[in-house]
Amino acid sequence: MHERVIRAALLVTTATAALGPPLVQAQGDGLVPTDFYHEVGVGEVAISPDGALVAFTVTTINEDLNQRHREVWLQELRGGRPSGEPFRFTDPTREASAPRWSPDSHILSFESQRGEDKDAHSTWFARVAFPGGEAYQIEGVEAAPIWSPDGTWIAYVARPPTTASDAETINRDGWIAPNAISATLSAERFDGRVITTMSYKRDGTATLLPHPASVPKRQLFVVPAGGGDAVQRTDLPFDVSRPVWSADGERLYFTGNELEDDDHNREATTDIYVVGRESVEAEALTANPGNDSAPALSPDGTMLAYLHSRGRGEETDVRVVGLAVDGSFQGIPRNLTGDWDEIPGSPAWTAAGDAVRFLAGVGGNRHVYEVNVNGELIRQVTTGDRHVGSVSVTRDGLVMAYTVTDDITPAELFVNRGDGGLQQRVTSFNDAWLSRRSLQSAERLTWTVTDGTEIEGWLVKPVGYESGRLYPMVLKIHGGPYGAYGNTFFRTFHVLSNAGFFVLYTNPRGSTGYGHDFTYATTPGWGEVDSEDYLAGVDAAIETYPDIDPTRIGVSGGSYGGFMTNWLTATTNRFAAAVTSRSIADWASLYGSTDAQALLDFAFGGPPWEQRELYNRLSPITYVENVTAPTLVIHSENDYRTPIGDGEKWFIALRKRGISTELVRYPRSSHGLSRSGEPWLLVDRLERIRSWFVHWLVDQPD
């Protein structure tokens, strides 16, 4: 093994170490809800600049503690190929994440909360070169490091420090808006909130947010790489984010939104700024309107690539611009993807500086794409029916590492040549338990709707499928609506497949990955337009697979998919049972309770009092008297994206009408329960969905 790895700072174990509880005998051959406890997630990939090691995070589930556990692992490479087995790098008794390499590849940083003090800073460093040693902290570095190209400086973003008394005042003042007019008789006894801003809650944060004026904004700090006093380089009335160094280490570029706290701002106002390492005040390089984000410096430091969008619902493109000696823009930014009708991810330069790369979802896949600096050619670099993520590339561009997931495999680590021509799988954490399960691969299905648009979907057959036997089917609907299904692992689909169902999942109009016009074809007609796509998909599936019983069709979805589940059961009679998760029943009431008013303003062309007829017309509650499908309503109690009031409204309306219905309320859970919720609750949710459809479409088909 490489000498520098032998002397790694932290506990090292082989990949054969136990990564989860022993397998439990499953009922049937396919996936069951409790298999979630065996899933291992790979992510946050960081290949060392010299290409000798790949760092990545490994997430496992501890069923007994009802927790996820994340560690940093390493894989040695020789000539861009795996050498030996991957091994655990960080202490298995502590959480660790966010691996980052120093420019010389000798130091790996990571985030790990250690000790009892939850407020203590959590950035640690470990040497992977001789002589090694214990994990340590660098004086002055209080957050994840961004090394300068020559490795002599570290930048980071954090909130400016405050004294303990200041912190107490800030926390308390955040509960009472500084501009509040109403008064209290006893400030000591009042423990409620006085709110004057619309941005007082955020999904995924259980407690209400303090008034933005009471919280220091995240600023940019710089400290010598060897440690010392951190120097605050910005003092701006908004949060600093995404800093990157110039090639010579003399300045930093970052993004910020000067109107981030303006409740009434509907424009795209994120800009790119530049600030000197030691002098010069921050200066805006871009101007509104428009969002300019994700800056990336070319290797020679002469050009900047970034993402630009004129506003919500507008196309997102990669732009490049020359840089003057003082770091300012030189010339007019050029659009490299103006003729490409998809949505590029954050840009990164090739080692030669002649092209820009990014991740993008196209159809059911997500891959690395490349466009040359003249914008004349866009090339797909990675291939296959899969989703590529967390891409990291060596300094010379000859090797890249990333995660891959497909329709029957959770994410694993892969390496590839820089040109995408020699992909190789590195990890196999999920192979052992998957080898004991029978999973059906998804089969692609397309159909055409009345305006000539082709719709793409996929169908998973039941485990143990026998031709000539009739089976029920469940239509699954994705959220968004500006999202997409595709060739990635969805455990819910396989749990239903194992329970004896065909599973149809589709990307109707409104989905991403099929061009800008396709994505916004349903705006402002959410439900009215895409209903045809779903119903035509059901017809296409039944025609293509005669073993689907047309009298036993279920429908299920979450978020926008929950809205569509409610909408389809209220406006059609095609479905014999439904499961609606984190759903919407009434757009007008949602407007006053969600943390996403801006999305509704865009989709409906204004708030409810300006578009009253449209909000009512597109609300499932308007047609609830037509629902006949037994419906399971699933909602998280701390969901601030689609608050539980809409789930309660739908449940009460169905219950009042005598429709078979149940409401499942999950505590301590936000909008992302199905993805990031407590393991016990996530598994329970899978079983609720499975058992509800089995009862109504298998045990009680009449």
Brief characterization of the structure:
The protein is an alpha+beta fold and 702 residues long.
Topology:
Blueprint: H1 3-6, E1 13-14, E2 41-47, E3 53-62, E4 67-78, E5 81-82, E6 87-88, E7 97-101, E8 107-111, E9 123-127, E10 146-147, E11 153-158, H2 164-173, E12 219-224, E13 231-232, E14 241-245, E15 251-257, E16 270-276, E17 283-284, E18 291-297, E19 303-309, E20 316-323, E21 329-335, E22 348-349, E23 355-362, E24 365-372, E25 378-380, E26 387-393, E27 399-406, E28 409-417, E29 424-425, H3 431-434, E30 443-448, E31 454-460, E32 471-477, H4 491-498, E33 502-507, H5 516-519, H6 530-544, E34 548-558, H7 560-571, E35 577-581, H8 587-591, H9 597-604, H10 612-617, E36 631-636, H11 644-656, E37 661-666, H12 673-676, H13 679-699
Parallel strand pairs: 32-33, 32-34, 34-35, 35-36, 36-37
Antiparallel strand pairs: 1-6, 2-3, 3-4, 4-5, 4-6, 7-8, 8-9, 10-11, 11-12, 12-13, 14-15, 15-16, 16-17, 18-19, 19-20, 20-21, 22-23, 23-24, 24-25, 26-27, 27-28, 28-29, 30-31, 31-33
